[in-house]
């Protein structure tokens, strides 16, 4: 059933040169493209956002919700959006930030000093600016909704969103720098905003858009800057003690050095220790986190006959191939794999004499998942068991890094002990930064320790597991910095909704749609993290999962439009049954399946509740009296769901299914009685 909304259409919209359907698709594509670009670009310059990726996501959700709620309250074009985007780009480029990683309790290690504005100042600016920027495209989308039947408008919105993901994914694949993102934004602003009056249009749209492109072009032309799907990579060639070295930084943080193998072995003992702890020279070596190639060069210098080099970032691998003085990637003994290390372990059937986790510190989060880093699934007990299963008799597994905290060394060592069944070798090379090497043989006799590890100190947290892969979180709690930040976000959001959208009473009839938005974001987070575990934390998997979610939503809309579906209470029952299935199916069973069967099973388990949830939403949305307000309430619910994602730090990602189920029950309770018959 579809109903037309009674929201008045502005004069500007009636005179728009684009028909409503293509305009809706373009505006929706632009909205999602701009959201993804802001998340990606701000995180590369404001390093705090590399660890709080969904901070910009939450601001985007707030802005999109406000944009829909603003429809009908103003007939003016949202000329403010390109102006705010210009201000945001100028501020970020003028005041870039590197992060202070000394704070215990957050989800990273190693220590650097802060350069740039403090977090308490720059983060609110980024949040508010992201909301204001996204409010413009969202308002343009929302103005199209009253002109079409409910589900048809939602259908074109989803088609546009898929197009936005496809466009941003294509640019990521091509390693396009930010200037191309700015050109896309300028073009979309020019096409979507009505050019009347002309003077206002030129001053508030054309000029700011061109200035944004100019600023991003200046950044793009910076010497030594490359854009990978994960980072802004900068590098600089230099001489260190007469040795050629290339310093590599990502998102403004020193990350790697391309150094000749002989020099690295002389300068830092940790690089040679894994080979000293083995009982025989390794012939076949697996290196996870191969990066610019120094660890690969060392393995070759130690006599390895074959090296599988796994690196998640194609640009870091490409850079290593061109600048590393030893040219290890040109050696015929080396095979490169551009993928996630855990995914490689779960897919490969090869066995090795030595498996090495070589400084796999990603310095960034998986986009769209509140606390999941690219390497999170490498340091769980299940991951180390997977590494153990790839060792030949007499083989060894080793890892090294600057762990910063002694309890992190103990936690990893106890994780390795649980996986291998005996104590590992633990070499703390330097107490400054807790530089350590942890090595375990397939059996105790396959390792040569300088001294016996005394065991984990009292108070060492238990090993991380695949459900709570938060290695750097010492206690089972949400760190205060997150609680304070999220609390302030919710307060600002409440005030913004009241100022922009008017009295909350407008949204009161759509409480159930608000709760559906909260629950769906948790469901989406569980799907993203689940697929990251099963298939890798790569940007490709991430893009496919988000596109798959939108395809499932679109399928639900099409089914609701074309077929008679069961009443809402029945669909809620199907939804809850899907959540129960997702709860009951263990990740270990899915990982045991061959990749094709694993894909089929994972899609079924993950997308059944997503499909049912969106049939529920589509049926309820088609029955609303005000399309824009109801959709805005749902989007604001998604923002609150983004805050609740952090509950996973305490209850794990599987626990989010329980929270989602409770929220869906709440939505069922608040559903209007007349909708129960729909």
TrEMBL record:
Under Gene3D superfamilies, the record lists: Vaccinia Virus protein VP39
Q: Which SUPFAM superfamilies match?
A: S-adenosyl-L-methionine-dependent methyltransferases (SSF53335)
Concerning InterPro entries, the annotation shows: SAM-dependent_MTases_sf, Spermi_synthase
Q: Which domain of life is it from?
A: Bacteria
Q: Please report the name of this protein according to its UniProt entry.
A: Spermidine synthase
Which organism was this protein described from?
Nonomuraea spiralis
Q: Which UniProt keywords apply?
A: Membrane, Transmembrane, Transmembrane helix
- Mind telling me which residue stretches traverse the membrane in this protein? 24-43, 49-72, 79-99, 119-141, 153-173, 179-194, 201-227, 481-501, 513-533, 539-557, 569-591, 597-617, 655-672
Indicate whether Transmembrane helix appears among the record's keywords: yes
Q: Which Pfam families match?
A: Spermine_synth (PF01564)
Carries keyword Transmembrane helix? yes
């Amino acid at each position: 059933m579809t109903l037309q909304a009674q929201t008045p259409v502005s004069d500007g919209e009636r005179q728009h040169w684009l028909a409503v359907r293509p305009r809706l698709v373009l505006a929706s594509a632009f909205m999602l493209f701009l959201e993804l670009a802001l998340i990606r670009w701000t995180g590369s310059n404001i390093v705090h956002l590399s660890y709080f990726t969904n901070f910009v996501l939450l601001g985007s959700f707030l802005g999109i919700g406000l944009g829909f709620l603003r429809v009908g309250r103003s007939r003016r074009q949202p000329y403010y959006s390109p102006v705010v985007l210009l201000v945001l780009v100028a501020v970020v480029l003028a005041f870039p930030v590197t992060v202070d990683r000394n704070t215990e309790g957050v989800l990273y290690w190693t220590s650097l000093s802060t350069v740039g504005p403090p977090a308490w100042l720059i983060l609110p600016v980024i949040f508010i600016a992201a909301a204001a920027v996204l409010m413009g495209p969202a308002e343009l989308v929302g103005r199209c909704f009253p002109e079409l039947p409910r589900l048809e408008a939602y259908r074109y919105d989803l088609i546009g969103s898929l197009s936005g993901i496809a466009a941003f994914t294509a640019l990521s694949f091509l390693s396009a720098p930010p200037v191309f993102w700015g050109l896309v934004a300028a073009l979309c602003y020019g096409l979507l905003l009505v050019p009347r009056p002309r003077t206002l249009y030129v001053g508030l749209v054309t000029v700011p858009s061109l200035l944004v492109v100019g600023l991003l072009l200046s950044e793009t032309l910076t010497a030594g800057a490359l854009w990978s799907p994960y980072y802004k990579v900068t590098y600089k060639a230099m001489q260190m003690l007469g040795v050629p070295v290339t310093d590599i930084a990502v998102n403004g943080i020193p990350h790697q050095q391309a150094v000749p193998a002989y020099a690295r072995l002389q300068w830092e003992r940790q690089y040679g220790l894994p080979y000293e702890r083995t009982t025989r020279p390794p012939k076949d070596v697996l290196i996870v986190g191969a990066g610019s190639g120094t660890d690969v060069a060392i393995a070759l210098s130690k006599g390895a006959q074959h090296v599988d080099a796994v690196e998640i970032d194609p640009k870091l691998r490409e850079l290593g191939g061109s600048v590393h003085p030893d040219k290890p990637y040109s050696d015929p003994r080396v095979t490169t794999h551009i993928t996630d290390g855990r995914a490689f372990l779960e897919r490969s059937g090869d066995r090795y004499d030595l498996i090495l986790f070589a400084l796999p510190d990603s310095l960034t989060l998986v986009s769209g998942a509140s606390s999941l880093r690219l390497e999170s699934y490498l340091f769980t007990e299940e991951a180390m068991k997977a590494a153990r299963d790839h060792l030949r008799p007499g083989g060894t597994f080793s890892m090294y890094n600057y762990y910063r905290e002694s309890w992190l060394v103990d936690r990893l060592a106890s994780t390795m002990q649980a996986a291998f069944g005996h104590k590992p070798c633990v070499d703390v090379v330097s107490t400054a930064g807790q530089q350590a090497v942890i090595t375990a043989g397939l059996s105790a006799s396959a390792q040569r320790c300088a001294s016996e590890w005394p065991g984990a100190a009292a108070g060492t947290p238990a090993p991380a597991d695949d459900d709570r892969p938060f290695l750097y979180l010492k206690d089972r709690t949400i760190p205060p910095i997150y609680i304070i930040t999220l609390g302030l976000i919710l307060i600002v959001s409440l005030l913004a909704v009241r100022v922009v959208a008017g009295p909350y009473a407008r949204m009161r009839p759509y409480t159930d749609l608000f709760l559906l938005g909260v629950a769906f974001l948790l469901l989406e987070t569980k799907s993203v993290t689940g697929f990251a575990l099963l298939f890798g934390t790569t940007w490709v998997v991430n893009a496919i999962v988000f596109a798959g979610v939108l395809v499932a939503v679109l399928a639900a809309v099409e089914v609701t439009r074309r077929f008679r579906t069961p009443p809402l209470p029945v669909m809620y029952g199907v939804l809850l049954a899907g959540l129960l299935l997702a709860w009951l199916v263990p990740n270990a069973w899915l990982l045991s399946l061959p990749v094709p069967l694993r894909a089929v099973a994972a899609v079924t388990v993950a997308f059944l509740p997503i499909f049912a949830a969106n049939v529920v939403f589509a049926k309820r949305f088609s029955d609303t009296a005000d399309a824009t307000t109801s959709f805005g309430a749902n989007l604001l619910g998604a923002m609150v769901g983004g805050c609740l994602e952090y509950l996973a730090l305490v209850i794990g990602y599987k626990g989010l299914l329980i929270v989602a189920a409770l929220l869906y029950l709440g939505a069922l309770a608040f559903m209007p009685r007349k909708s129960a018959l729909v």
